[in-house]
Design a protein that fits this description.
two-stranded antiparallel sheet; single chain; alpha+beta; globular; 269 residues; 5-stranded antiparallel β-sheet; 10 helices
């Protein structure tokens, strides 16, 4: 199966996976969100599926498709991710059941939904990491982005020595006395579906990593203020001491910095 980065390729993949003719497909609509993939919502009389074809430079953006495949199996079984119909990392193709519309930005800041997100993170971080899932070491992530930018001769203001040193120190601090768990690492409203049960899509940055960095993703993407961050943390854990709050703040700073590095790498690719 050779994917084409267009609607015809998505139609062909969908027909093969569902065992139907192309004529049995009612519609094929591009899904506009997603910076590293092209995705289509394909509908038939019986099925609604999502066909995703990767168009990213996985190595530079630190995406591991084999690891993602293992994660998808685990979170699908746990009811936290989509059912996988086809996962072919070699061909950069993923086909999953459609879980419905994603949240809006407004959904992500509602108090009730912040509570639900905290509970979702708690469920996710209790899922046993399957074999073959990568470890997301934040210091390695940072060094990888630093190295890629240096190799390209790109020296944006965000890679000054003081910022680099602080980021590496924060990464080490978050690792201290912290058990690593299965994490999504990219939670924002476009990656959350809600049919009464919250589930997450787009697991390409998932891995075994730091729990508070996972929580930091939604805090940073949606500009949670102090009260909202406290609500998320209290729904996630009974540990409300100052040290836990301080570590979440450090994680938020680091997530914001890593996101800026990612954008610099992507824009320079």
């Amino acid at each position: 199966m050779t994917p084409a980065g267009n609607e015809a390729g998505a139609l062909d993949i969908a027909a093969r996976v569902l065992g139907i003719t192309a004529e049995a497909i009612l519609s094929c609509e591009p899904i506009k969100h997603g910076l590293t993939n092209e995705s289509w919502l394909v509908r038939t009389k019986r099925d609604d599926i999502v066909v995703r074809i990767s168009n990213a430079a996985e190595h530079d953006l630190q995406i591991d498709r084999q690891s993602e495949a293992a994660v998808l199996t685990a979170v699908g079984e746990a009811g936290i991710g989509p059912e996988v119909l086809l996962c072919d990392p070699a061909q950069r193709v993923l086909v999953t059941r459609y879980l419905g519309d994603t949240w809006t930005e407004a959904d992500a800041v509602q108090e009730e939904n912040i509570q639900r997100l905290g509970q979702l993170f708690r469920r996710l971080h209790r899922v046993p990491p399957p074999a073959g899932v990568r470890r997301v070491e934040l210091n390695d992530t940072l060094e990888g982005y630093f190295r890629t930018l240096q190799e390209r001769g790109v020296q944006p203001a965000l890679v000054t020595k003081s910022l680099r040193d602080r980021a590496l120190q924060v990464a080490l601090k978050l690792r201290e006395n912290s058990a690593a768990t299965l994490c999504h690492n990219d939670v924002h409203h476009l990656n959350v579906t809600d049919d009464g049960n919250l589930r997450l899509i787009d697991w390409e940055y998932a891995g075994v990593g730091q729990r508070l960095f996972d929580l930091a993703s939604v805090c940073v993407y949606h500009n949670y203020d102090k009260m909202q961050r406290e609500q998320l943390l209290s729904a996630y854990t009974s540990l409300t001491e100052l040290t836990t709050w301080h570590r979440l703040e450090l994680a938020c700073w680091l997530f914001d910095y890593v996101r800026d590095l990612w954008m610099a790498v992507r824009e320079g690719g």
